[in-house]
Amino acid sequence: MRLSRYFMPILKENPKEAEIVSHRLMLRTGMIRQQSQGIYSWLPLGKRVLDKVNRIIREEQDRAGAIELLMPTLQSAELWQESGRYDAYGKEMLRIKDRQERPMLYGPTNEEMVTDIFRSTVKSYKSLPLNLYHIQLKFRDEIRPRFGTMRSREFLMKDAYSFDLTREGAEHSYNKMFASYLRTFSRMGLRAIPMRADTAPIGGHLSHEFIILADTGESEVFCHRDFVNFDIPAADTDFDDVAGLKAIFEKWTSVYAATSEMHDEAAFDAIPDGERLSARGIEVGHIFYFGTKYSEAMGAKVQGPDGKEHIVHMGSYGIGPTRLVPAIIEASHDENGIIWPASVAPFDAVLINMKAGDEACDKACDSIYAALAKAGKDVLYDDTDDRAGQKFATADLIGVPVQIIVGPRSVASGEVELKDRKTGHRETMTIEAAINKILG
Ligand code: ATP
Ligand code: MG
Question: What is the pTM of this model?
């Protein structure tokens, strides 16, 4: 992508409305724009990061056996009357009427709708286990939307819903998502800690929130330091191995971790000195086993091996992609800007032409750009006539992992400079060596 033809509206000044660093940097780099309170457009640079985040989520959902579909944002109130949540949900739900005066709503979540799909299509236990997910916009009329897309009113959610014949089956489905979440967040450079969550509103079964530690987090969290060293499940994890997944779940829930709502001071104090971690955290995911709450109310049942009808056991599993993007920035930035982990970076490299219009510089840049593009790398080519200093500042601000710096002096001897955004390390090498290094 040539910067001269791209759309990346960088702000020179720090936006005053932004209280936390991720919000500030997302506005400054032109990743997002607020359209009305708590409602954002994702501009091209932000959209690229969001797509990478979603891709990792998809790959890990698919690996764990979940199947993607797409349900609508607008839902009929009738479904929610069946579950009893139409009245229970309160003011967070945006209620609308269509031209026939039929009550509709902008979905804050999809349990009812997916249960409706299930009950009208699945008849036999042979179709189970089943886990259906989508990545779709949600709307919740939050009292206090803030921190940009960290807590917005319209936001993207990956929500998955599992269906099983028995409670044991449902626990395995839960463990699959548990392991899948550990992998998902780790691939984005985050260490998310599963913390026991309150199940009171639905009736107590299994529930964990996945929390990343950050000073600007909205939740107060307490946990054992050991979490920092636990192994992430490998890519070849067998998601059908019931005992294997149970072992992963047990390991990751073997030491203390709780948000303030679930905090048990005595249990926390029992952790040896120096191993207690009390910090602030950001909830990036939430998994929930809720048994037959919706299936019972809405009549979602299958014929079992015994020939009788069984109400299915369900769970739901959420991740917030539009919250994850700022969460990654909170975890990875410095005074000059964002430092993207390579897996979610909007571009693989930025190519800085220090003297656009200079024949030798242009030629070198064109050849590097063509070679990297041919190899499938996404390169942002700064071919503008801005000052070199400004180009360096922009490259640091947008946080692309590698900068290829092409200036008249080094190009004369066939060389360019590579700069690693994270370490700041610079190295001069031949053009060919630079290309090979980026192609790894
Ligand atoms: P919170 O406690 O932060 O209000 P929640 O518990 O209501 O979130 P869930 O219903 O568990 O949220 O939603 C699943 C995921 O969706 C959350 O873990 C979070 O990543 C994301 N999410 C929820 N609300 C928002 C929001 N207002 N803005 C952005 N992401 C959100
Ligand atoms: Mg939650």
Answer: 0.97
